[in-house]
Design goal:
This protein is about 45% helix and about 10% strand. It has 16 helices and seven strands.
């Protein structure tokens, strides 16, 4: 059983525990709840992949020369890293994209692997359909996450009343006091439920990352799951520079004897109730570094996510996959391919403001 919970304050974690207790006898396998307002209320501007910053796709980064094969023999899950062909080919799956909840949600549209259903005309939410498609393209095209092997149901509700009524009918026992909820039952497509309010688009983006990663990959560690969701929750043209975590991360990097947060500590986290504001901030910061510092760090991220593909873990149990993951964590990949990654992390955030100003002025950063 895996639970993905986006909240980070103590009261939210307590509600999450109570919700899981109430739902223990239900069919729930996975519940994703939204961030506490203290985290999401001020989230606004962070850069994406396709604007001012020149960020090659991770696939291009993979094409760079890899270390000699004898240095790569024990890469993640014995994953040989010699060239782009090391990344498993994208399989094609025929999946049922028909609506599942027409009784409650008469409006529907299939968008990639996501079937969006609602009880209000989807045209009332400007840009929603475009963003859903674009987010899937970013995850598949830039992060090399494979296409989902199953449908993801995204259910949108006009108001709180219909949202709660839906949960009570289809997922009795699940918590109803959150603006967004992701439920994954064994052998069934995941269902993401979001009620309409001023933060609906942010909620959809954040929880869609959780839903897609856990539909396409296997045994996704909580720190990278939340780090990517935190990164992608902002609008596509605003990711990278103005996340509310950035000021604190930059300040820490500029301090005397600065050092990066412990990756080992993050990688040892196994439960969402171990995630506080500090853990969310550090997970986001490592994700930012991996995606923005260089093609070498992008390549490490691609290798790491590729090791979580179902085909990379074929024939082994979840327990065995988790054991191997502990033996070859992100920290070990960085030690192998970016040996001075700790210094690079500090350098990255010390110089990020200058790079940001350069990009925003339409010129290349030095």
């Amino acid at each position: 059983m895996k639970t993905i919970l986006g909240k980070s304050d103590e009261s939210a974690r307590e509600r999450g525990k109570n919700g899981r207790k109430r739902g223990g006898a239900s069919r729930l396998c996975c519940v994703a709840a939204l961030w506490a307002s203290c985290l999401t209320g001020t989230v606004s501007n962070v850069l994406a992949f396709d604007f001012k910053i020149s960020l090659p796709s991770l696939f291009d980064a993979i094409k760079k020369d890899a270390p000699p094969s004898d240095e790569a023999k024990d890469a993640a899950y014995d994953f040989e890293v010699n060239d782009a062909e090391s990344i498993p080919a994208q399989p094609t799956f025929a999946i049922d994209l028909s609506p599942s909840f027409s009784k409650f949600l008469p409006y529907s549209v299939a968008l990639g692997r996501v079937v969006c259903e609602s009880n209000f005309p989807l045209e009332e939410t400007a840009g929603l359909q475009t963003e859903i498609v674009r987010l899937q393209n970013d995850l598949v095209g830039h992060l090399l996450v494979p296409e989902s092997r199953e449908k993801i149901s995204l259910c949108l509700f006009r108001d709180k009343t219909s949202y709660i009524a839906f949960i009570c009918e289809y997922f009795p026992g699940a918590p109803t006091d959150r603006p967004a909820l992701y439920v994954k039952e064994p052998g069934k497509p995941g269902v993401l439920m979001v009620r309409r309010d001023e933060k609906m688009m942010l909620n959809v983006r954040h929880e869609m990352v959780h839903a897609y990663l856990n539909a396409a990959l296997r045994n996704v560690p909580i720190w990278i799951d939340e780090g990517l969701a935190k990164y992608f929750e902002t609008p596509p043209g605003e990711r990278g520079f103005r996340n509310p975590f950035l000021e604190k991360v930059e300040s820490d990097a500029k301090s005397f004897l600065a050092s990066p947060p412990s990756l080992r500590r993050l990688e040892n986290l196994t439960r969402v109730d171990q995630m506080g504001i500090r853990e969310y901030r550090e997970s986001w910061a490592w994700t930012h570094f991996l995606m923005h510092y260089s093609s070498d760090t992008q390549r490490v991220l691609a290798l790491y996510l590729s090791s979580l593909r179902p085909e990379a873990q074929a024939g082994i149990s979840s327990e065995e996959a988790a054991r191997r993951q502990k033996e070859t964590p992100m920290k070990r990949l960085l030690e192998r391919y970016v040996p001075d990654y700790k210094d690079k992390y500090v350098e990255h955030f010390r110089g990020w403001t200058k790079r940001r100003d350069a990009y925003e002025n339409g010129r290349s950063a030095e």
